[in-house]
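ARCHIVE CARD
Drawer: 12
Card no.: 0347
Subject: one protein chain, sequence and derived structure
Cross-reference: see card 0346
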Amino acid sequence: MTVSQPAVKYGLIAGIGTVAYFLLFYFIDSKLLFNPFVYWASLGFYLALMWRALQVEAQAAGENFGFQSALRSAFLVFVIANLLYYLFYYLLYSLIDPGLIDLQREAMRESLDQQGHLLSEEQREELLESLKDGRLAPTVSGVFFTFVRSLIGGFVAALGMAALWGRRGMND
């Protein structure tokens, strides 16, 4: 198995773009980093560049670019981009601006106050307990395991994208 050059290229672009995107919001108002819309919208970089990598690779490979190749390429873009994002996250929260943890705690409390009625009392208490000092501070192992868990979602996204790519090829 060879490493896909387009997947690496577009993974780096997605990762750097995502970091730049979050830095933009950080410099505008660091509280915006905790806005759910800002966070979830960042996946647009990943998805757009995963698709672009598939287009470039399929053009180069021709008929030999099937579902498995599309899955591998799209997932590699996600892995590289997310690795860059979590490296940025760790550096930002632990070294550059540790005060963000307090802002995050405040944003989570506000969210819990607004949406807490959707949870059972036990769940609400568990979340409040998790907001205590020190529990939100990023550690290398904590960030690494969060990155690893995120790969599950990335694989599902890549799987869906590869399936779409395969169906697209059937309809040509």
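Annotation on reverse: The two ends are 28 Å apart (CA to CA). The chain has seven helices and no strands.
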